[in-house]
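pasting for the record
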Amino acid sequence: MADLNDLIEDLDTPCDDKDIAEHERLFALELSSRPVVSTQTQFGYAYVLVKSRYDNDIRKGIRLLEELCQSGVDQRDFVYFLAVGHYRLTDYTVAMKYCDRILEMEPGNTQAKQLLAVIKKKRKKDAMIGAAVLGGGAVAVTGGLLVAGAVIGAGIAALRSRR
């Protein structure tokens, strides 16, 4: 299980903003000198974007990876990082679909299997946290209603005792 925990840590650790800025500079420089950037430059930029701490960057990285998938070049790495991007946005259903797509291409792909296991683990954990929050909210509402009922009851009793 240590491998999964290492993978989770890697997935959840954002890329340094300086790395993103450098890849953005290279991307813009290449785009200014030719109509289309190279696959390598676009992939490098997309990679750091999906590892960003900012959701808008992650979405931009996903768009760049989707463009690469349409280019006809070997797609496995692109699809893997599409899964990573959606995982980081907590869009687990889409992330799992991308993992499944890799496993259709390469049924023995360990990296996709591990990422799929991480996504399922994280989805289960988030669901349990959500249930606890909802449960706690229900207790708070119920408790609040009980307190409000007690205050109203005390008020009515006080009014009755004044008569």
